[in-house]
Design goal:
By secondary structure, the chain is α+β, with helices and mostly antiparallel strands. It has helices at 3-13, 27-42, 46-52, 56-65, 74-85, and strands at 95-98, 102-105, 109-115, 125-132, 139-144, 153-158, 164-172, 177-188.
Length: 192
């Protein structure tokens, strides 16, 4: 083995490092300088002022944070229900709905519903909406079904702010509609 071969073997196994020179700034110094320039450049910009007031994303976030301070609006809940029904006549007996008469805790109100259909072809629901008419935001849940779903049956727990009606709206593939309603007395309200 020659000296040239052995030196190349040791040179390839050892990591090569750049030593910082006094004339060249380090990467850390460059990043710190660039960051401070960016911050001082944006401090007085009108873009930053616009960002703090009037930004749609910020406004939506603020309204989301105050979700539970919104009072229930029965007229708004009725409008949502009218938009779902759209003047269609509900088919009687299409939806079986079970809810307690009295819910001791509004945080966990157990409900079950079943859409009576064969789940083949046009005899299945496309979507089922669950509405709590006394909540600040009435749309509690929305379920989408396909033929592969097997059954259109759901058992769930929902939150209710106050004594109100729970409404199930099932929209079928053929355009027909199933509607079921149950009045639930809530002892200890949630969503407050």
């Amino acid at each position: 083995m020659t000296a040239g071969n052995s030196s190349s073997a040791t040179a390839s196994s050892a990591p090569v490092r750049d030593l910082p020179h006094a004339s060249r700034p380090s990467r850390r110094a460059l990043l710190q300088a660039g960051g401070s320039l960016a911050v001082t450049g944006l401090a007085g910009s009108p873009a930053l002022a616009q960002d703090s007031a009037g930004n749609p994303f910020r406004d939506r976030f603020q309204s989301f944070r105050q979700t539970f301070r919104v009072e229930p609006d029965l007229e708004e809940a009725k409008r949502i229900l009218r938009n779902l029904v759209r003047g269609r006549e509900p088919v009687p007996g299409l939806v079986d709905f079970t809810a307690p008469d009295i819910a001791e805790n509004g945080n966990v109100v157990p409900i079950t519903f079943r859409v009576n259909c064969s789940m083949t072809g046009d005899d299945r629901p496309v979507v089922v909406h669950v509405l709590a008419m006394g909540n600040p935001f009435p749309e509690v849940a929305t379920y989408h079904f396909t033929e592969q779903s097997g059954r259109a049956e759901i058992a769930m727990r929902c939150r209710m702010r106050q004594t109100a009606d729970l409404v199930i709206v099932a929209e079928m593939v053929d355009g027909s509609l199933g509607l079921a309603r149950s009045h639930v007395n809530v002892t200890l309200g949630a969503c407050s």
